[in-house]
Amino acid sequence: MRNPLFYAKILLFGEYGIIEDSKGLTIPYNSYKGSLKFNKKSTGKISNESIDRFAEYLEQNFGDEFDMEKLNADIDKGMHFDSTIPQGYGVGSSGALVAAIYERYAINKIDIADGITKGLISQLKETFSKMESFFHGKSSGLDPLICYLNLPLLINSKTDISTIGIPEQKEGTGAIFLVNSGAPGETAPMVQIFFDKLKQEGFRNTLKEEFIKYNNACIDSFVKGDFNPLFSNLKKLSTWAFLHFKPMIPQRLLDAWQYGIQTNSYYLKLCGSGGGGYVLGFTKDYEQAKLHLKEFDTEVIYKF
Questions:
Q1: What keywords appear on the UniProt entry (predicted)?
Q2: With the C-alpha atoms ordered 176, 182, 184, 186, is the resulting torsion angle positive or negative?
Q3: CATH fold for domain 6-163
Q4: What digits encode the pLDDT tens for the residues 257-274?
Q5: Which regions of 73-167 does DSSP assign to beta strands (E)?
Q6: Helix orientation angle between 227-244 and 254-263, rounded to the nearest 10 degrees
Q7: Could you tell me the sign of the dihedral formed by the alpha carbons of 251, 91, 223, 117, in that order?
């Protein structure tokens, strides 16, 4: 078996907003990765059993789109997903698995080696959305899409997604970084909270008039490498999330979240659905931010 690696992903901007057609920006994160391997020992047993249940779902929902005979035979041989991507941390653990299964077993898979167009991206997203729904109840398909393409993606709307170049990293004092809340989160309950909030007219209005405005402005500034307006809008975005996404912010991070806004030393935002796992930090002075966040493990994902 070829063992292509599938890397983690980070949704820099667009969490929840992309459900309501805000822009989104997602990037690969190559510090974590996974691949399909064979192992009859206990180390791969839990993953093997999970893939077995996933295979049943694929057989029921995709007809003859996957080589189920080959997949089931490999599961019987002890195939599992050998991964360093932490589960429940918002960095695409299930997305990488979905991408790996698609790459290996889809009968008429879209081969990105021949080039990628918006039309092909849309087809892949639709397939991945249906596949990953097994794990989350409802999925946009974006996580497996970026894990499969391993390229930064700009989401303009649900039906308009394209690859995009982002500014090269520089050895400056600024950084985008992950903050570990100390415990995993569950996607489905957080998404349900969001949908419950959407039933309130006041929340729908502030999402469209404020959150989407700040989110889209952050993306535009980041892509241009224009960091002053980026941080101005990051403060507004972080403040808005503190007011309206508080149930999704890991409890242990609430004080740190507020402190960053009050001191302007860093700004935090959700990384994925929230509830636990990682949150994202943005700062112009990473060493100073680390001092304020010394209770938490942090890791840099982008320098400027």
A1: ATP-binding, Kinase, Nucleotide-binding, Transferase
A2: negative
A3: Ribosomal Protein S5; domain 2 (3.30.230)
A4: 999 999 999 999 999 889
A5: 79-83, 153-157, 160-163
A6: 140
A7: negative
